[in-house]
């Protein structure tokens, strides 16, 4: 039986993992109050006293716009927090599964990004996540980095929840229609992570990067239309350009991820974003 620790309990992805942990592994979920990954001494102490086989890091600073002003706070979690974990994990001889983002890409491509495409983030959040990936790849820890995109879940804060709220409050809203990506239901990603944890054939190496999202692509505008259609919410959704909806952080115009590698290595089946959205909304 493997001992697995999940950091970032209470976040979208960790919440889905916690509900799914149906297998016979020994799971431990820790919130920031139980272990702050920025606290080097606490991390080192914790891992000295507790042995794990796999560390799944779902903890992150994820406030993309706020990060433009809170640069230090963002790097503290997304880079220094990872350095603290790596040191402790190396001494523990454990393995790491770390989650990263499509925002490591600048969005200038028009075909799906694969793991070998060069990363060039637009904003502080993306830069901090890429810095986190780099220390993982430069460490001695056997690890998997999963980049995902447009994550949503029934738990925590996300675009779907925001649309449901404002769609019920307003008659007219505007949503950006010139940024393309793929929504990812955190439940599907959690199932994929469990499949990876249980895989017996995979040979772990240092910093093996994979891309994962749901199948298909859309704009935020199309995503919003589908949310309202499935939820029977009557609201006018105007198409906006990125220039008409300025945000502090620049988002990639196109961030579709090529998922061939994770499919080939782990035999992952993908659900279309549309079907996964229906599944999520049934639970709302
Ligand atoms: N959300 C997206 O659209 C998206 C897209 C692509 C990739 N990702 C990546 O996917 C992963 C999971 O994202 P998510 O949406 O599940 O994130 P989330 O809902 O924002 O959850 C992140 C969790 O990390 C915790 N945390 C923050 N600082 C911490 C610290 N110093 N020590 C320990 N825990 C800390 C947070 O606790 P508090 O809430 O108490 O601060 C929160 O529970 C992240 O790596 C993220 O970068 C997310």
How do the strands of the widest beta sheet line up side by side?
A: 2-1-3-4-5-10
Shape descriptor reads globular
Strand content: 15-25%
* Number of continuous helical runs: 9
Instruction: Determine the mean pLDDT.
Output: 97
Order of helices and strands: EHEHEHEHEEHEEEHEEHEHH
Largest sheet, in brief, is:
6 strands, parallel
Helical amount: 25-40%
Attached small molecules: NADP nicotinamide-adenine-dinucleotide phosphate
Radius of gyration: 19 Å
N- to C-terminal distance: 34 Å
Structural class label:
alpha/beta
Q: How many DSSP-defined strands?
A: 12
Contiguous low-pLDDT stretches (5 residues minimum) are none
Explained architecture:
This protein has 284 residues and is α/β, with parallel strands linked by helices. The chain is 38% helix and 17% strand. A six-stranded parallel beta sheet has the order 2-1-3-4-5-10, sandwiched between helices. The chain has a two-stranded parallel sheet with strand order 6-9. The protein has a two-stranded parallel sheet with strand order 7-12. β1 (3-7), α1 and β2 (26-30) form a beta-alpha-beta unit. α1 crosses α6 and α2 packs parallel to α3 (71-92). The protein is globular, with a radius of gyration of 19 Å. The two termini are 34 Å apart. The protein binds NADP nicotinamide-adenine-dinucleotide phosphate.
């Amino acid at each position: 039986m493997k001992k697995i620790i999940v950091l970032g309990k209470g976040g979208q992805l960790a919440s889905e993992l916690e509900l799914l942990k149906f297998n016979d592994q020994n799971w431990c979920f820790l919130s920031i109050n139980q272990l702050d990954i920025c606290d080097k001494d606490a991390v080192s102490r914790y891992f000295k006293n507790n042995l794990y086989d796999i560390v799944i890091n779902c903890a992150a600073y994820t406030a993309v716009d706020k990060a433009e002003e809170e640069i230090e706070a963002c790097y503290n979690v997304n880079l220094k927090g990872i350095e603290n974990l790596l040191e402790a994990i190396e001494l523990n001889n454990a393995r790491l599964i770390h989650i990263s983002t499509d925002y490591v890409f600048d969005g200038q491509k028009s075909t799906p990004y694969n793991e070998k495409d060069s990363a060039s983030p637009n904003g502080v959040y993306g830069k901090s996540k890429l810095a986190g990936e780099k220390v993982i790849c430069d460490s001695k820890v056997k690890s998997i980095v999963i980049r995902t995109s447009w994550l949503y879940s029934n738990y925590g804060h996300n675009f779907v929840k925001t649309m449901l709220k404002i769609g019920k409050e307003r008659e007219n809203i505007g949503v950006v229609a010139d940024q393309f990506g793929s929504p990812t239901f955190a439940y599907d990603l959690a199932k994929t992570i469990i499949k990876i944890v249980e895989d017996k054939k995979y040979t772990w190496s240092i910093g093996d990067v994979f891309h994962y999202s749901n199948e298909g692509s859309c704009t935020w505008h199309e995503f919003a239309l589908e949310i309202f259609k499935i939820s029977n919410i009557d609201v006018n959704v105007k198409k906006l350009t990125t220039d008409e909806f300025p945000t502090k952080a620049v988002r990639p115009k196109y961030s579709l991820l090529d998922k061939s590698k994770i499919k080939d290595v782990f035999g992952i089946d993908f659900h279309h974003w549309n079907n996964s959205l229906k599944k999520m909304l049934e639970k709302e």
